[in-house]
């Protein structure tokens, strides 16, 4: 009976470990960055680059291939100015989202194959408006803005 009990405990430990790992999102921001700094790395690209190099820069922080990412071809200041537009509900129901006043140039990168670090992406150029979530700046962010972008909620 002892071997069955040891096997049961091992199985329970494995199950709990699996549940714990499932709680850590693969897109979690690196600990040494603020949410706005991570947003800037993931989504702000004033000069368009190809998906390969741009996504390599994101994936090196998370050590996995991100499935979908959109780059806004605007300066961080221009994107942060969107935080001053009227509030709209986010997809998650929070009331801290804001829509850009006009369409901007975007690049969408969709993962088509590969395993980190050999990720392959399909690139799509768009001209569309976007919705971002904004929060007050954290310690380490520029004090220049009352609100800073922290999440790209959608493209419309």
Keyphrases for this structure?
156 residues; alpha+beta; P-30 Protein; 3-stranded antiparallel sheet; globular
Short recap of the structure:
With about 160 residues, the chain is an alpha+beta fold. It has four helices and seven strands; from the N terminus they run H-H-H-E-H-E-E-E-E-E-E.
Give me the count of strands. Answer: 7
Q: Could you name the CATH homologous superfamily?
A: Ribonuclease A-like domain
Report, as a whole number of angstroms, the end-to-end distance.
Answer: 61 Å
- What is the number of independent domains? 1
CATH topology: P-30 Protein
Shape: globular
Order of helices and strands: HHHEHEEEEEE
Work out the helix count: 4
Helical fraction equals 25-40%
Strand content: 25-35%
Structural class: alpha+beta
**Rg value:** 19 Å
CATH architecture: Roll
Major sheet: 4 strands, antiparallel
Mean pLDDT: 88
- Which sequence of strands runs across the widest sheet? 2-3-6-7
The CATH class assignment is Alpha Beta
Pick out the low-confidence regions: 11-26
């Amino acid at each position: 009976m002892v071997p069955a009990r040891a096997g049961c405990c091992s199985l329970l430990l494995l199950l709990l470990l699996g549940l714990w790992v499932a709680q850590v999102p693969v897109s979690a921001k690196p600990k040494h960055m603020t949410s706005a700094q991570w947003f800037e790395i993931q989504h702000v690209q004033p000069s368009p680059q190809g998906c390969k190099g741009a996504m390599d820069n994101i994936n090196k922080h998370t050590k996995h291939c991100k499935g979908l990412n959109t780059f806004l071809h605007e300066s961080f200041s221009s994107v942060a100015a969107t935080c001053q537009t009227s509030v709209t509900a986010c997809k998650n129901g929070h009331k801290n989202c804001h829509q850009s006043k006009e369409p901007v140039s975007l690049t969408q990168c969709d993962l088509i194959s590969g395993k980190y670090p050999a990720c392959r992406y399909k690139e799509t150029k768009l001209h569309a408006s976007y919705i971002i979530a904004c929060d007050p700046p954290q310690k380490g962010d520029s004090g220049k803005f009352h609100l800073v972008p922290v999440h790209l909620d959608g493209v419309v």
